[in-house]
Specification:
Helices cover 34% and strands 22% of the residues. It has 403 residues and is α/β, with parallel strands linked by helices. It has two domains: 6-179, 3-Layer(aba) Sandwich (Rossmann fold); 191-399, Rossmann fold (3-Layer(aba) Sandwich). A hairpin with a 5-residue loop joins strand 9 (201-202) and strand 10. Helix 1 packs parallel to helix 3 (48-55), helix 1 packs across helix 9 (168-181) and helix 4 (74-80) packs across helix 6. Bound molecules: cytidine-5'-monophosphate. The site of cytidine-5'-monophosphate has 14 residues, from helix 12 and strand 16.
């Protein structure tokens, strides 16, 4: 993913600094060359020895080596880097970056670097939510810095909320996306709707019907489309995933809400990729009060939901429509019939019987089926599958440029 890329990893003094070690390993495993700049406080959380061993490069903290006076040039570091990744980034460092304070090597390097800068904030939820931090993050964004979305979760303080550093795997994907987007903006004036994740069908105020979809595949597709310059409206069921960079996100719960949001977004779109696991049935009525249990068995009358893909298929005209088929057997025939019935341009078949494919996992094994035949792909990461799907979307426009 990052073969031969130069990544300058900036580490600041956060408890999440231990994750910088994993991040460094993942960057190296992806083929990148890594140099590490640390603040003085970061050294109290993770040792320079650890980072030097993992990056296979000496760690840079001071402007010059006090023993021999050797100068650590922030300018040449900035020139060397294809990407400056500051992870974890404390509220303090973010504030200094936003205002141009340059009182350590990490910050002077930021001011002189011309490459893409990515910041992965890591702090307590109250500090993260504070208007000053949010304003500083917006300032950095307006300066072209990419912010790795901070997911909600348990924090070192014991509090629960937003402020955790994004997981190293997600950060590496973001770095790869940012670096590849610098080259390819092939879908620049196109707008796509992507549906992702599971819907939630309420039974009463407490219970609901859902499924195991986590949204990973749809989010990876949305990210890849945005990376290649497209405008993306991501209509998403409930998920813990961060919003991909540059994507407009519309949160929904039920199949009905997803239908309405997708149909509305499709009015101005050039195409749609239907990746969501939409409930096929929903309770006929939603009880207003929590249903009391009794000793009797119970059954819940269900009614059909609207098929969003089929509805878009009816109005799509020349626009592109991609569907998914998740089957518990080989499923070629069933996928073929969905391709016709829903008026799709192509369908991505994944089978639950394939090891490493399906819900929750980071990999997938898919077969593309279009009106000319099928192509089976090997097992690969969902990010790589997303890139293959978007390659196929690009091909579609190359073959029919008027779409
Ligand atoms: O018919 P089936 O649910 O297997 O079709 C799967 C495809 O149709 C997926 O692309 C899925 O996102 C889409 N779909 C939809 N609305 C539904 C059901 C499925 O958009 N109500």
């Amino acid at each position: 993913m990052l073969q031969g890329k130069h990544i300058l990893l900036g580490v600041t003094g956060s408890i999440a600094a231990y994750k910088a070690a994993v991040l460094c390993r993942l960057l190296k495993a992806a083929g990148a060359e890594v140099k590490v700049v640390m603040t003085a406080t970061a050294k109290q959380f993770i040792t320079p020895l650890t980072m030097a061993t993992l990056s296979k490069n000496p760690i840079l903290v001071e402007f010059f080596n006090p023993e021999n006076g050797e100068w650590n040039s922030h300018i040449s570091l900035g020139e060397w880097a294809d990407c400056y990744l500051i992870a974890p980034a404390t509220a303090n460092t973010i504030a200094k970056m936003a205002t141009g304070v340059a009182d350590n090597l990490l910050l002077t390097t930021y001011l002189s670097a011309r490459c893409t800068t990515i910041v992965a904030p890591a702090m307590d939820c109250d500090m993260f939510a504070h208007i000053t931090t949010q304003t500083n993050l917006k300032t950095l964004q307006s300066h072209g810095v990419i912010i790795a979305d901070s997911p909600a979760g348990e924090l070192a303080s014991g509090l629960v909320g937003k402020g955790r550093m994004a997981e190293p795997e997600q950060i590496v994907e973001l770095v790869a996306q940012c670096l590849s987007s610098e080259k390819k903006k092939s879908l620049l004036a196109k707008h796509f709707v992507v549906t992702a994740g599971a819907t939630i069908e309420a039974i009463d105020p407490v219970r609901y019907i859902t499924n195991h979809s986590t949204g990973k595949m749809g989010y990876a597709i949305a990210a890849e489309l945005a990376t290649r310059g497209a405008k993306v409206t991501l209509v998403t069921g409930r998920t813990t995933l961060p919003t991909p960079q540059g994507v407009d996100r519309v949160d929904v719960l039920s199949a009905e809400q997803m239908y309405n949001a997708a149909v509305e977004a499709f009015t101005t779109a050039d195409g749609a990729i239907m990746c969501a696991a939409v409930a096929d049935y929903t309770p006929a009525t939603v009880a207003q009060q929590k249903i009391k249990k009794s000793d009797d068995d119970m059954s819940i009358p269900l009614v059909r939901t609207k098929d969003i893909a089929a509805a878009l298929g009816k109005i799509k005209g020349e626009r592109l429509l991609v569907g998914f088929a998740l089957e518990s057997d080989e499923g070629q025939q069933s996928a073929q019939s969905k391709l016709q019935r829903k008026n799709l341009d192509f369908i991505v078949l994944n089978s639950l019987t394939d090891k490493g494919a399906g819900f929750g996992v980071d990999t997938n094994k898919v077969t593309f089926i279009d009106h000319n035949g099928s192509t089976a792909l090997p097992l690969m990461s969902k990010v790589e599958v997303a890139a293959k799907i978007v390659d196929k979307i690009e091909e579609h426009y190359a073959l029919s440029p008027d779409c």
